[in-house]
Amino acid sequence: MRVCKGFAAMVILAFSQTLFLRLTPHVFAAPAQSPKGLRAGAAKLDVTPRLGLSVPGNMSDHKGAHVHDPLYVRALVLDDGRTSVAVVTCDCVALYDETIAAAKQIIEKQTGLISDRVAVAATHSHSAGPTVSIFQSDADRDYQRWVSIRIADAVRCAANNRRPAQIGWAVGSEPRAVFNRRYFMNPGTMPENPWGKTDDKVKMNPGVGNPNVVKPAGPIDPALPVVAVRDSDGDPIAVLANYTLHYVGGVGPSHISADYFGMWADVIEREWAAPATVNKSPMVAMLTNGCSANINNVDVLGSSSKTRPLSPYYQMDKVARMVADETLRVLRTVQYRDAVPLGARMSRIPLRVRKPAASEVAEARAILEQAKGRELRGLREVYARETILMAEYPDIMEVPVQALRIGDLGIAALPVEAFVELGLEIKQQSPFPTTFVMELCNGYFGYVPTVEGHEQGGYETWRARSSYLEINAAPALVGAALDLLKGVKSSEK
């Protein structure tokens, strides 16, 4: 389990849910006999936090003061008559595995959907509610509990909305919006890291037009896999897409926003939806994040270096429209199937934690003593606090990895912010003709760079609650994902 003091008690959600669960019958269970064809349902529910709570995603804390656009949890339930799976997205920066476990516990009790067949992914908006603690922003327990319930409610509603369906998928590409955000720099130009050293070989976000930039330190992944679900009348039920872009940002001051993920969904739900009918649930659009820990939307080396500062939401809207246009193009090419086999597998792998030495903890305490009574400033002070907090972490973390099968489509789910190289490797070696990877799915265990990325250094490798798994975590996670994909593909029903 993750370290989140006091929050483990959240599993005692049963206290507030027990009476409800006792009085509520199971509303969903796969039938004993397999009917012909597929059934599918989708739903979305609001999870916008009240104003005044922390908005995690930066090194300093700030409180939400305005809602620019609502946050949602979105769910898609697929049922082939014998096996059921669900994919859920939540507009937040990340979700602890405790939050998701509590939601899955309710889902299983209320719907009969087995927890290992439910994938819950964060979209990674940096302007959402306090679901996790990041640097000086702390999670809010009440909001975490409420999000757990809303995740379960969304899956239940999606199950209620099931109807005969068809499904298909295709893969597009949008390379214009994605850039590797780590760069090699000219000798002697590397700034200090939190420990006062300048031995990092790469820098994250060196600045647009920085003359000391040499070249990007890694690749990109422009692929845009799109899954389309429609009912027997041809009316859309859901669109599930995957794009490898960290987030866009550029919100107004202290604004709550789902970032470009929400804007993309608005376009798809508006332009791909069927005419409104009184007896059908609305179509739901869901965008999951690929392995984008070292990918963003900043064109450091391009012509954007000559542009003026952009107004809030301008770039976000531009990217959302670009990705939505490609999504709509791909949707028009999809060939639908009346029936596909479904499957899911999940395992937990033990990974070591990079914990600080006693001398590092003592040094960190001395730094924080000097900053006592005020907000922490600068990398040195912020990471001193992280060092002390990391000292309390367990030596080993049990990290969940999941694989889903939808016919000849494979989906891998990792609970980390993974370097793009991990996603590319999984897709290349997958036994499925089409595969995509959802990151920040089923938990939050920080950044996972490649082994080479650790050797290069840079922000994503700096030890903190945002990056703490062992150096060999990447090959371990890739290997586990591939094993699960092979297993779910070969499993007999």
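Above is the first protein from milestone M3; the second protein from the same milestone is given next.
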Amino acid sequence: MTRPPGAERPRLATAASTDDLLELLQTVRRELVLRGEDFQGSWVEKAAEDLRAGRQPGWFYSPSKGTGGLAFGNVRGSRAWGHVHSTDESDSVQLSLALLDGLGSPATTVNVGFTGLTVDAERRLLSTLTARPGATVIERFCMVRTLRPGDTDAPSVPPAGLERVPARDITLAALADLDWRAFRGSVDDQLVGGDPEEYSRVLTGLLGNALGLFLDAASTALIETEPTRLIGGILTAEVSAREAVFVDIMVDPERRQKGYGRFLLRWALRALVGLGYEKVRLWVTAVNLPAVRFYEAEGFRRVATTSIYRWERPVGEPQPQRSR
């Protein structure tokens, strides 16, 4: 894959002013909020500092250019995550190539999200990027459900042989292990990171309110009592004063098809009604059809689709394909 002749290459974020980075990152955050994908705290300021100092890799087009644009990411071990924002289709291509070349040098897998483009322009961008060997596109559905007074009729007593306990009463290691086992080998696992350590990192952020105010009263776990074994859990955070999000719903793969996931979901819906929320959302990968059908049967409806570009270094290729 090559750049169009004469195309202006994005500059390293270390050459940007702090004001430019803050302006671009605030634009990214606004788009994520509108899509219901961002409910964090003050990550914008920290990201601007890290990009300016070179602690986080990034590339940019100055807002003074017209539309401006930004690509940024992070690398942990052999895995990398990134995001590209621009309203200009050509700039998005250049930013994406810079990001993939930069993150793909140390990493063997890269997951990238996008904002700024129209649906058609994003599809063209993804079509261009998937020409890179090892590339695929993962689609995710945002599903939303209105909370109803009847949700309070859901049973609060867990199925026979199980005990319901507060999520925070479970050790981080046990939650991360269950999360990893519940999603191991799935597309969701590819997006998170593929090992208990990465699940532990994500859960640490969730429990520490990095993904929005963690709602202890709408989060719970299920354990078997004889012998004691963690077999399920649901973790919930706040999107706004009126809306919550189910960030994580996990069931031990050896205990599926027993109604445990349905109990957890309905218990959490009941709890959210009691807390005064009006809506709840969740995200599910499009290829997980059983989960999509389950959520639809429980009253959730799709309201948005987002795409994640994923690159995996082809077997036998020591370095990613470089664009010249």
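Note on the second protein: Confidence is low (pLDDT under 50) at residues 1-6, 319-324.
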